[in-house]
Design brief:
By secondary structure, the chain is α+β, with helices and mostly antiparallel strands. Helix content is about 50%, strand content about 10%. It has 26 helices and 18 strands. Strands 10, 11, 12, 13, 14, 15, 16, 17 and 18 form a nine-stranded mixed β-sheet that branches. Strands 1, 2, 3, 6, 7, 8 and 9 form a seven-stranded mixed β-sheet that branches. Helix 12 (about 360-380) packs parallel to helix 18, helix 17 (about 480-510) crosses helix 18 and helix 23 packs antiparallel against helix 25. The chain is globular. The structure holds adenosine-5'-diphosphate and magnesium ion. Adenosine-5'-diphosphate binds near residues 214, 468 and 469.
């Protein structure tokens, strides 16, 4: 065994669960490190507190004077908790979170110093952030980007730093981050959904999109993980033979949580409590060493921030427990990968979940309105929704025989299918009183009862209705939820606006009653969007063929999927709803393509290095041992030696064959990379990496994995799957 692998395993065996002091009640810890309503009451005057609340509720601007007062309140609070620094905390398009700490400390001359944090520093900063991806925006406009306070997401303390959630925009206002378009999309859906919700309840003045994400991840002992260059640099294994036992016994799913892991989870949950992240659920997932964490759902902007924050905190807390967290969608071949289900709904300021069936026919008509409009929005924009979850790492799940497929479809369950089938039969035009009673009482009125025992949940669907929310399951585990949430909320907003126009027209021009107008419009939508609904097995080949017949897209790779991001239809949609302009859209497209090509390039380099500098030399060394053995046998048996060394000779030949394949594979891959690198056009380059470079990964890996089974375990340099996945 290589010294590195041996020492790492020895280290791992010694490790014990870290002791975690559990507070008597976690609820008492909740939000203690957040500048929330409770804290604001303590540290701000009434007016300032009210201004922040108004900013959260209706987007009201906060004046400079008030900001001055707020910053000083924040500072007092932070200092009382031992904080020394502050930072604007933002989400640039790298996918990670960004921060640049400044001390409160300032000198005031004469050798004196004070703690200072003014309103200016709270509201706006100009980090020297020229190295973040901008897709050329800051070159085209102004070579500056600045961060601006987002009062709708509360400031929080991490360690000894006060973190202020901000947006990140160019000098001329173009979004350079994930949060800015999300906030715009949330405003759009608020207005569109509020207008429609008013059909059913005049008191509604605001609708919040809600998000409850479920984060899947792997935990690997850090000593073992650090022995693998691929895990270290790419976050996934690029080679490694499957262990004798994987997940086939299903004994990990919901199994008892290993003690070291449980201790990590408890530590993490306690940190989350302090930060106001309402984590609730923890469990083992399907694959060995795979786990899941889920909070109670929140307003989408906050939920997105909390997910970005938690990914960072998970990594930090893991260090204390000697774990490495793998967020990659497919860290290990042949066992399940990770996703991040995005549970989504719409909720009014009157306390109604618009996607929850109610107890009266009217409430259910409201439910059906939002339910059917969402399905229609997904149908009309399935390619854009697919583009929103495209990434090099998520390609390993979508369209690669892994849950869910690259085809977007909506699952609603057999009972709701029946309801929609009946609604589809509604007569054209005004309904007779008899028809109306029949419809309201027997179809619409019965929805909550039938949903109660609607348990057939389809795990293979990419977009499923689960009782009172939709669950977008195709989002990748590394993704920032902002991107898919921006798209989903924008397309539903657009759809609801159209719905409103059509219903109002029927009421006004055709003199229809409101109910009739709604039923008539929904009926048409049911017909128009039928093709996106699919209740069967989403993994099967039959579905692939069927989906093709229905005209649904099946974009298996990122460069292909991203095309929809910049189509004329998309630009029109985003511009019309003021979520992004053409420059912003194209910049994002360029950044994502660039990111894709770079990731494949990096993986190619790592694989080439491991194959040539680790695997081939090891194989040759073992081959030499065999050759020596054969030489020895020759010495003993002389002429008869062949009989005694036949199998050794086979292995010697097999090793040579694999080594040859690996070496030429690497050589050809490098050539393909050289060609790709010369391509100026970023989209063409991404396609070249996808179609010409990436296929070599499989060839090289195949032969390396074969060698793993042939070569002496004592010599093998890389920590094996069975060690990575089953030691903890
Ligand atoms: P699964 O069976 O897919 O694991 P769970 O029931 O564990 O689903 O997860 C449900 C998730 O849905 C939780 O994260 C929860 O916060 C979220 N959720 C529940 N209601 C809503 C809602 N109205 N809006 C958004 N998310 C919701
Ligand atoms: Mg789920």
């Amino acid at each position: 065994m290589s010294t590195l692998r041996f020492e790492a395993l020895k280290e791992t065996f010694r490790r014990q669960a870290v002791h975690i002091e559990e507070p008597a009640r976690r609820s008492e810890l909740f939000g203690t490190n957040v500048f929330n309503e409770h804290t604001m009451r303590q540290f701000l005057n009434k007016g300032a507190h009210q201004d922040v609340m108004d900013a959260i509720k209706s987007g009201k601007k906060i004046s400079r004077d008030v900001a001055e007062h707020i910053s000083s309140g924040m500072k007092e609070w932070a200092i009382s908790k031992g904080v020394t620094h502050y930072t604007h905390w933002f989400q640039p398009l790298t996918g990670a979170t960004a921060e640049k700490h400044d001390a409160f400390f300032e000198t005031i001359g004469d050798g004196l110093a004070i703690e200072k944090f003014g309103g200016g520093a709270l509201v706006q900063q100009e980090p020297d952030a020229s190295s973040f991806p901008s897709g050329g925006i800051r070159n085209t406009f102004e070579a500056r980007g600045y961060t601006a306070w987002d009062p709708t997401s509360p400031a929080f303390i991490w360690g000894t730093t006060l973190c202020i959630p901000t947006i990140f925009v160019s000098y001329t206002g173009e979004a350079l981050d994930y949060k800015t378009p999300l906030l715009r999309a949330l405003q759009t859906i608020d207005h569109a959904a509020t207008d429609v919700a008013k059909y059913f309840d005049k008191n509604v003045t605001k609708v919040n999109a809600t998000l409850g994400w479920e984060q899947e991840y792997f935990l690997i002992d850090s000593a073992l993980a650090s022995t693998r260059p691929d895990l270290n640099l790419a976050g996934r294994t690029l080679l490694g033979h499957s262990p004798a036992k994987g997940q086939q016994l299903d004994d990990h799913y919901f199994g008892s949580i290993p003690s070291r892991v449980l201790s990590y989870m408890r530590d993490l949950e306690i940190e989350c409590m302090k930060l106001g992240i309402p984590v609730k659920t923890r469990h083992n997932e399907v694959a060995p060493n795979q786990f899941e964490l889920a909070p109670i759902f929140e307003e989408t902007n906050l939920a997105v921030d909390h997910n970005s924050l938690i990914m960072d905190i998970m990594t930090k807390v893991a260090e204390k427990h000697y774990f490495k967290v793998l967020f990659h969608e497919k860290p290990f071949a042949n066992i399940n990968g990770s996703g991040k289900h995005n549970n989504w709904s719409l909720s009014t300021d009157t306390g109604t979940n618009l996607l929850a069936p109610g107890s009266t026919p009217m409430k259910n008509l409201q439910f059906l309105t939002f339910f059917i409009n969402t399905i229609k929005a997904v149908y009309d924009n399935e390619e854009l929704l697919r583009a929103a979850i495209a990434s090099a790492s998520n390609d390993h799940r979508l369209g690669a025989n892994e849950a869910p497929p690259a085809i977007l479809s909506v699952f609603i369950g057999s009972q709701l299918t029946e309801v929609l089938d009946q609604l589809e039969k509604v007569t054209d035009g005004k309904l007779s009183p008899q028809e109306k009673t029949e419809l309201k009482l027997n179809v619409v009125g019965k929805i909550p009862e039938i949903l109660l025992d609607n348990t057939d949940r389809n795990r293979t669907s990419s977009f499923a209705f689960t009782g009172n929310k939709f669950e977008f399951r195709a989002v990748g585990s590394t993704a920032n939820c902002a991107n898919p949430m921006t798209v989903l909320n924008t397309i539903v907003a657009k759809q609801l606006k159209e719905f409103k126009v059509e219903v109002d027209k029927l009421i006004k021009e055709d003199k229809m009653k409101k109910d009739d107008a709604i039923f008539n419009t929904l009926r048409e939508y049911i017909k128009q969007s039928k093709k996106i609904r699919f209740e069967g097995d989403g993994y099967g080949e039959t579905w692939e063929k069927e989906a093709k017949k229905r005209g649904l897209s099946n974009n298996r790779t990122t460069p292909q999927a991203l095309k929809a991001q910049v189509s004329e239809k998309t630009v029109k949609l985003f511009e019309e709803l003021k979520v992004m302009n053409k420059v912003e859209i194209e910049a994002r497209h360029e950044i994502e393509l660039e990111d894709y090509a770079m990731r494949i390039q990096i993986e190619g380099r790592i694989l080439g290095d491991i194959a040539r500098n680790h695997i081939i030399p090891t194989a040759v060394r073992y081959q030499n041992i065999l050759i020596e053995n054969v030489e020895g046998l020759k010495h003993i048996y002389e002429k008869d030696f062949k009989k005694h060394s036949e199998e050794q000779l086979h292995i010697i030949e097999a090793i040579s064959a694999h080594v040859a394949k690996i070496n030429t594979g690497v050589k050809d891959m490098i050539e393909a990379r050289k060609v790709a690198n010369k391509i100026e056009d970023v989209e063409k380059r991404a396609f070249a990496y996808c179609d010409d470079v990436k296929p070599y990964f499989d060839v090289i890996r195949y032969h390396c994995d074969k060698l793993e089974l042939l070569v002496d375990d004592e010599l093998w340099p890389l920590t094996k799957y069975r060690e990575l996945l089953f030691t903890r």
